[in-house]
Amino acid sequence: MLKRLEPEDWTPEAAAHLLNRAGFGGSPLEIAALHSRGLSGAVGSMLDGEEDSDLFPPPAASVPMDVVDLKMKSKDLPEEKRKEMQKMVQREQREQTLELRGWWLNRMRWTPFAAREKATLFWHGHWATSAEKVKEPFLLWQQNETLRAHALGSARTLARDITRDPAMMRYLDLQQSKREKPNENFARELMELFTLGEGHYSEQDIRESARAFTGYRIDPISRQWRLQPRQHDGGVKTFFGKTGNLSGDDVLALIFDSPQCARFLAQKLWVFYAGSEPSPELVEALAAEYRAVDFDTARFLKTIFSSGEFYAADVVRRQVKSPVQWLIGLSKMLETPLPSPIVCEAILRQLGQIPFAPPNVKGWDGGRAWISSSTLLLRYNIAGYLVGGKNAGMGLPGGGLGTARVDVEKVAPVRATADKVCDEVAWRLFQSPLPPAVRGKFTAYLLEHGTGTTARRDLLNLMMSTPEFQLT
Amino acid sequence: MNKTLHTRRKFLRTSLLGGAVAWTVPAFLERTFFSLDAMAADSAIQTVTGKDGTILVVLQLAGGNDGLNTLIPFSDDTYHRMRPMIGIKPEQALKINDYLALHPSLTHLRGLYDEGRMGIVQGVGYPNPNRSHFRSTEIWQTAVDENKTSATGWLGRYFDSCCQGADPAVGVNIGSQTPQAFSAAEPTGISFARPEQFRFNSAQASDPKAAEEFFRSMNELPAGESNDGGSIGMLNGVADTGGDTLDFLRRTALDAQMSSDKVLEITRKSVAPVTYPGGNLANSLNLVARLIGGGMPTRVYYVSQGGYDTHGNQAGAHERLLGELDGAIGAFTADLKAQGNFDRVVLMTFSEFGRRVAENASGGTDHGAAAPLFVVGGGVKAGLYGKAPSLTDLHDGDLIHNVDFRSVYATVLENWLKAPSREILNGTFPTLGLI
Hints:
The structure holds 2 protein chains of 2 kinds.
Chain A: H1 12-22, H2 28-36, H3 38-47, H4 67-75, H5 79-110, H6 114-126, H7 131-134, H8 137-150, H9 155-163, H10 166-171, H11 184-195, H12 203-212, E1 216-218, E2 225-227, E3 237-239, E4 242-244, H13 248-257, H14 259-274, H15 280-292, H16 297-305, H17 323-333, H18 341-351, H19 373-388, H20 408-411, H21 418-430, H22 436-449, H23 453-464
Antiparallel strand pairs in A: 1-2, 3-4
Helix pairs in contact in A: 1-2, 1-3, 5-17, 5-18, 6-8, 8-9, 9-13, 11-12, 12-13, 14-15, 19-23, 21-22, 21-23, 22-23
Chain B: H1 2-15, H2 30-35, H3 37-40, E1 55-61, E2 71-72, H4 77-82, E3 94-95, E4 101-102, H5 107-115, E5 118-125, H6 133-142, H7 154-162, E6 171-174, E7 190-192, H8 208-218, H9 244-269, H10 280-293, E8 300-305, H11 314-339, E9 345-350, E10 371-377, E11 383-385, E12 403-404, H12 405-416, H13 421-425
Parallel strand pairs in B: 1-8, 1-9, 5-11, 5-12, 6-7, 6-8
Antiparallel strand pairs in B: 2-4, 3-4, 5-10, 9-10
């Protein structure tokens, strides 16, 4: 059992922590509003959110390109024309993927239901699938919608839908799995990376479950899953002690019934949201909670977000921000829009996390792996760019952003003393008081350079160019 | 002995100055480690001083280089029959024996071969070859079996097991993205495309000078205190020693500041003694040569050249790519010779796969399997290693490998970097007589 957070521990810092972790953070006003709801009210408002889908009209990728039609049309064309057409399709795909990325990032930035986008990002890293191989933007968008639909719903249903998801099927070559030659790759990843973890299944389990997932195909027209009965192995299989004519869905249900699956997923969710490695006892407690709600992720997260463990000293402000969290959070703190999709993509490429392009089927390693001496310097410099707006030497596309984006008078207003300016900006950027030595240095900077607009703009830049700013 | 040293280094790194202020020790303390060199001589823990020690340069040919048009079996009829459009004519190829020749663009490599400074390993690959670029690249980078995945790369595991506590610049990648080969349990190695980007960009500030000064004051060890913990606790923000993650970030920040200063200093003052051709790869190797000459404490450099995915109209494109490769390596080796560092450096190429034996209908080649790679350097024993794969005994239309790529890794690890390859490669792979 997790301990419930004591009411007196529901402080503005705790509210900021909840907003950072359940979502992507927010401005001081948003933190204050969340705090005023009390713990239950705040957790409820984050996880029972709603959003108007009209806010985010679907991107071009939501309509499948008629690949079949294109193939038909190009069949009788001369070689050269056909190649031209291919190039055109590839260009279109690249542009749509770029737009799709921008669409999702902006949804994270502006949605009133941030917890759902955050959970969608978690599941994207979990059921990792990359555009590098999938190529078709429609399939990526479709998977993203599936992840979103169940991000805070049932992890069982999500798993079932993802085993039938064309992007995933293509990514792990499941759509080529035949009765005579089952693809064990998918079955292996399903258990090793998605549900159980290494060492919790046998090679026999892999072989038998691979047979159950044979015949999964992508319909060439609708781009949806369908079962190809001739390629499906309908024979008797034995999996996790059960024998019968097991289907892919049956195998998945058996996996979710095993206690290890709850442990595995609960542990991974804890690491994503809390940022620390849970003790074995905590894993057991978390797994019991997740099973008790039968993998209802929103209810499970409510328990986590209401627990004392989640607000412990080794959790709060001890997680390295992912590049996406860093970028979205920064833009929320500074109350600016995101740069254009192509600039966002270039930034996230430099920092090592491109949505729709995780490095491999394991997703992003996260944590300290985000940070190297070069990505740390890049974070400093890109933060400077997002405040200072000059594109000199940044290696980013487009011209500068200009200085008008950040309303310095609003986010770093003039106050009676340099101390007061520093404290207010520090609360906005770190949501916790600065260590005295660091605070002293920033105050000294303002005393030396005055509290004019440019000095306060530089203060924002310098405060974000710190190790502390990389944590949430 | 190894064990003690290892422990000692860990101790130095984490608690030289006492537990409470451990984070203020930068991840490397050059002077201290320098004095331990003698002890490290026969140890698995490797310290580099920058002036001696062997250096490995890994050159990735991204996209899948066509091995058969790189090292050409020119007297094999099958070769010409399978490649009527793109086959290289025997009279154009640079022959190295009665059966094999180099692509006509590879004149400098041919010179290095004749000089006895280049080994060619033939038929390199792995069982059950994967034809996906990204998956096969991942296999090469992580050096695991084709049905396994790994969170760490082969060079990352080398850093982890042999370079603990070393300068973070022990691995340097020229490019914006850290190669997966560098992934390590303890992230090590630095990446930058251009040295001028690998520094704090104070130009964003309205008062760059003040910003630069302030940034330095936040990220520098007070003078003279790197070996004395007395007042080191005054450095930025000691009050908060609450968490390992923050310690880690602060150490990384110190590392970044120090290696960036070093890189800038070296690249600013050094000028290449030879003229490099144009192109990204030549620029990268030029930079590597300057860093080597300047005494960077780096053991592994990583550079790459893209564009080898030649599905159509291959002939011209491939000629240009190999020409770029050849010119860049030619200038690089001449540069190292002029510096007197040629004997300290080994360069190896690799590509995620070769291409199919038969050309396709578009005058190109599709994804294949086994291919040759080059190993160049003063310490290399020239010659052909492995066997030329048969053009008729194929697997799914692809050449069958006879040298596992991990044997090449084992060779450079064991015989060049003097590192135990078993632990790093998770298995024993026979070394080749290359080095």
